[in-house]
Design goal:
alpha+beta; 9 strands; two-stranded antiparallel sheet; disordered N terminus; 2 domains; 196 residues; 27% strand; D-Maltodextrin-Binding Protein, domain 2; five-stranded antiparallel β-sheet
Amino acid sequence: MSQGGVARRRGEEPAEVVLTATNSVTVIDRVRSGDADLGFTEGPTIPKGLRSKVIGHDELVVVVRPDHPWARRRRHPVTPTELAGTPLVSREEGSGTRHALTVALANALGAATAGIPVALVLSTTSAVRAAVVAGAGPAVLSELAVSDDLASGRLARVSLVGIDLRRTLRAVWVGSRVPPAGAARDLLGHVTSHAR
């Protein structure tokens, strides 16, 4: 999905700002190739060869339908071993969310941890949320992305133990210490002034 907008400084021609939602690997590739001036990622590492600035923090949460057995497990939280052995509704390879979960499981269980078993792979967070609501299985998603679903009771947050699912949100670009003057720098300034 793309969103567009216009950025303008006093006395300058308008600059078009186009925002496209895609996975972190694609964002990094587009910034490196020059197809994008600025990108936003949520992976656990700083992409090599790119400049970056932390713009916020997030936590991944395990979510299920409210009638799922995991939703009622308060006294016995789900462990990393259980999570790693359960087929999940997941984002595609290359997504920062999936990569962050893989790294967190490897940190909790050891580097030799196999990949995440998947019940269903989807290319957007909205599609993953809808699949969980429809009963396709548990998912691990951004707390920011599911906050409304948790507040409304459409999804339930699962209690976990023994795994750190916090992550850093970054802006990335090529070149100097700050993005070049213009729309990209203005957008980064706007994002950082409103960061969580």
